[in-house]
Amino acid sequence: MAGQAEGRTTPRGQLRIYLGAAAGVGKTFALLGEGHRRGERGADVVVAFAETHGRPQTAALLDGLEVLPRQKLTYRGATFEEMDTDAVLARKPQIALVDELAHTNVPGSRHEKRWQDVEELLDAGIDVISAVNIQHLESLNDVVEQITGVPQRETIPDAVVRAADQVELVDMTAEALRRRMAHGNIYPPEKIDAALTNYFRSGNLTALRELALLWLADKVDEGLQKYRAEHDIKKTWEARERVVVAVTGGPEGDTLIRRAARIAARSTGGDLLAVHVTKSDGLTGANPENLARQRRLVESLGGSYHQVVGDNISDTLLTFAKAENATQLVLGASRRSWLLALLTGPGIGSRTIHDSGAIDVHIVTHAQAGSRWGLLPRYRGGITARRQVAGYVLAAVLAPLVTVALTPFRSGLNLTSDVLIYLVAVIAVALTGGFVPALLEAIAASLLLNYYFTPPIHQWTIAEANNALALGVFVAVGLVVSWVVDLAGRRTNQAARGNAESELLVTTAGSILRGQGSLDALLDRIRESFGMRSACLLEREGGASGPGADWTVVASSGENPACRPEDADVNVPISDTLSLSLAGRPLPASDRRVLGAFAAYAAVALEQQRLVAEAEAAKPIAAADKMRTALLAAVSHDLRTPLASAKAAVTSLRSPDVRWDAADSEELLATADESLDRLTHLVENLLDMSRLQAGALSLFPRPTGLDEIVARALDNLEPLGRDVTVDIPESLPAVQADPAILERVVVNLIENALRYSPAGKPPLLAASALGDYVELRVVDRGPGIPETDRERMFVPFQRLGDTDNTTGVGLGLALSLGLTEAMGGTLTAEDTPGGGLTMTVSLPAAPGDEGVWRP
Length: 855
What we know:
There is one protein chain. The protein is of the alpha/beta class. The chain is built from 26 helices and 24 strands. The chain has a six-stranded parallel sheet with strand order 3-2-6-7-1-8, with helices on both faces. Strands 11-10-9-12-13 form a five-stranded parallel sheet, sandwiched between helices. Helix 19 (465-513) runs parallel beside helix 21 and helix 24 crosses helix 25 (739-756).
């Protein structure tokens, strides 16, 4: 049977995923419940891997399902359990239940990630039902960290979840989930308070729930678009309001965007899309500064900005709107006057309405509507001044020369030939000097043709109608050719200039957005780009205005900067208090347009510079304030307990009213001694943490034997009376560390492990060499720490999961991390297979064993 299975093509299995907003919403419960339902319908269902997290209601659902044994792997001296992919493939069930899709497998497993194991099962034709939380999706990793403050180390590519055949949301309100947590249905009792006050805050859960709902809505929308494409459905389905607003870069853009945003906001989940249509030649004539500002406005309103290419604007807009399944399209009223509209026919709005179909089109009036009265675009030459002068000279010389050259052949050539030769002259002048010189050449040529070559000769009259028509056509063709040549030159210049401007603006904007462009560098670029002598950014404090206002030079570039706007050759106001001033020469209007964008960049760069400076200045203040607050809290509360115990014991011994026997006296003295030892330990930790924060901790690293350090640490912990298992090879190389500091680190880690290790399961100390580093692992079998809280466990004055205040001020792990990093090592935390926490200290190996420190 196996050979037959290998010889045929196995259809790929189907993947169903239960998506949740957070732990405890019931994904595993739903997964196992679906397994029971499938099994009752006769399907072959196995549990490949299910993590019940000790929840009895979830564990009860395993009864009646076939559970495959897990694969056991040894890593760093510890045993881990993972899904046995080979066993699932060999069992070949119809449906496999696989929990924790985003899980990272133990090194040495078949695949790095569990979703890769699932892909192999699907390729083998096995249907898989799995579960994942929204915070594990790769695209939302940074968003979740901003919301919760906890980075997610285990992530899964969005494409894996999006490719699932079914994604079902397991939803629960934040209040209901917090009640489940409070009732002990998610975490053990010792972790409930920490979870409710940190990751499981109501705001966090609500935000995560919204992320899950929005992500799933996009997934459903993708399925809808796919269905429409497969069934060739062109009509708009109004499943969700999508409002497209067309922007041209004109002054009316802000009004249109805000109106479209209000329309989109009327329905829950409405989308806002702004689109700008450019010609296929890339020359839009739009103001880039206005487009950039309108793009920021769209994004600030929660919309998205798009730029598409098309020569027919109305067709391009409708094609984009239909592709996005838009329900409404917002256009601005035409800026053309009624006379221009009457002469040129229907505009973009009319054509769009005519072809819109099911899409609603809104024509929004604005202040600029009907403001364009001219019938023709304003003439702007595209030929340089030098070429225009050459064209005038050529026009003045070429017409007489052609006349002199053709006169001897007047009897042999007809008027048509003469017209064509003069037309060549007109084209030559147009190519050289542009439209105006060619226009003059055409007029002069027509007069010369009339006087010298059109019967009656040497008269300004034309006897035959055909000759008059030929001269008229000659003049018209000359004008058209001249206009086309001039237009081509103008477009070429515009394209070159636009390309240079866009490259300059994009490069500058990119450096500013990435925070890589300093204000001085930006001013240097402005000065060099426009060929100015100096460029400076001026700021005016207060509300003063006018020529007498005091301006301060914030930053400058070049020689002899203009310290006041009125002294500059070019001044660009940025705001009421900021101005960009350049000295050197006046700039044309085309340059001033681009300069306005640079001025906006300068304001952003100044704001970034000040924000960075304020952030840097606030860091030590915030750190000092945080440390001061925590220290006061520790001194006022946690240190009170050992002081009170010692004081009570000593006062009782000194009391004249009570006679204590030897046993009672010894007990009181032991209590005072223990309290004072604990007080001394706490004070030492506080002082060391203060030295670490101030950078004043002295270290004396040297080659150190790790076995001796562990032995001394265990001697110091002997009063605890607890067993510790030690597994340190004799051949282990020495580490480069400060012996006294390293001993403090080991003591703190062992104390932490002993505090949480259950009876009969002593902590394990194991060491091994990995390349140029030596690792010491402190393994306990306690309750462990959730992955979401592992960053906080290294924060000073944090005791994750503790319910009493008698175990210290929470400096042990924070101090251990700081001391380890000060010695050039790392301290990391990870789960212990089967439950618990493993703390791993990694230190650089010593160059050699010579001079190894021994006590």
